[in-house]
Specification:
Layout (H helix, E strand, L loop, with lengths): L14 E2 L2 H11 L7 E4 L7 H8 L1 E6 L5 H8 L4 E6 L16 E6 L5 H10 L4 E9 H8 L9 H9 E9 L4 E2 L6 E8 L7 H16 L5 H4 L8 H5 L12 H15 L8 H4 L2
Parallel strand pairs: 2-3, 2-5, 3-4, 5-6
Antiparallel strand pairs: 1-8, 6-9, 7-9
Helix pairs in contact: 4-6, 6-7, 7-10
Bound molecules: S-adenosylmethionine.
């Protein structure tokens, strides 16, 4: 295949070559025939080939045009590969496999992993599960509980949309070129429909973004433009608390107060401008 292709840093290219790791990742995904698999960043096909062997068909999104011919060549004997050349950050996964029950996988380019996760969470209703290789530090932030140093916007939004499980860590030597940091495999399983809603997700994202935007400040200060002061006692939250102390349930309660405050009958007061 593309023996002349050199790994590109700007595309976050650290290709998996360790057979044992590839086997463990595929085992964790447990692909079954006809699963609607979508791979992000197939690269040289390290995961794509065994996925094709198990499922027969994979749709994949790859940004680097120079990898596509080699990828088609290496995949052809093993099944049906549908390649979408483009940026996963703007690609709409609903285009794949009729956009239902999608199983997303990928050894994600580290430079776009966090914004990509936020984008995919917004489309969680199309997704059955996601298995991603990420920097270990990113996975640690996803699973972090309230009160921990790494708890933040990524933790709250990931845990709102999905059940999150860190499966195993992967040493840098499994990749070429060797990255500077450890990696980890995470499984994200979106919650059943009805447990979340797109409207609530939008309100929650607003509250969480404001609160963690200045994480050293108290909620009373950071949220004064968003939620009425009465929301704090109503939700059982100390307005002098910092955002990392709040559980997902507490953030949801504040998001509900934001929704109520957004409704027209609440625009009669000036609380949201002067902080009273
Ligand atoms: N899956 C391969 C493997 O495990 O060896 C490659 C993984 S490599 C870490 C990340 C892959 O994502 C590369 O193939 C890279 O070209 C691709 N990529 C980088 N940025 C991308 C983007 N914005 N959209 C889609 N693919 C991207």
């Amino acid at each position: 295949m593309t023996s002349t292709h050199r790994p590109r840093k700007r595309f976050g290219q650290n290709f998996l070559h360790d057979r044992g790791t590839i086997g463990r990742v595929i085992g964790a995904i447990a692909p079954m025939p006809d699963d609607p698999l979508v791979e992000i960043g197939p690269g040289r096909g390290a995961l794509t080939v065994p996925l094709l062997q198990a499922c027969g068909r994979v749709e994949a999104i790859e940004m680097d045009r120079d990898l596509l011919d080699g990828l088609r060549e290496v995949c052809a004997p093993h099944g049906d590969i549908v390649l979408h050349q483009g940026d996963a950050l703007t690609f709409d996964v609903a285009q794949c496999h009729q956009g239902a029950g999608l199983r997303l996988v990928g050894n994600l380019p580290y430079n776009i992993s966090t914004p990509l996760i936020f984008r995919l969470l917004e489309q969680a209703e199309l997704i059955r599960d996601m298995h991603f290789m990420l920097q270990r530090e990113v996975v640690d932030r996803m699973i972090a509980p309230p009160g921990s140093r790494t708890y933040g916007r990524l933790s709250v939004m990931t845990q709102y949309h999905c059940q999150v499980k860190r499966l195993f860590t992967v040493a840098p030597g499994a990749f070429h070129p060797v990255p500077a940091v450890e990696s980890a495999i995470v499984r994200l399983t979106p919650h059943a429909p009805g447990l979340t809603s797109p409207e609530e997700a939008v309100q929650l994202a607003r509250v969480v973004t404001e609160a963690f935007g200045q994480r050293r400040k108290t909620l009373r200060k950071t949220l004064r433009e968003l939620v009425p002061p009465s929301a704090f006692p109503a939700c059982g939250i100390d307005p002098g608390a910092r955002p990392e102390q709040l559980s997902l349930a507490a953030f949801r309660c504040l998001a509900a107060a934001l929704r109520d405050a957004d409704s027209p009958e609440h625009y009669t007061g000036a609380w949201n401008r002067d902080g009273r």
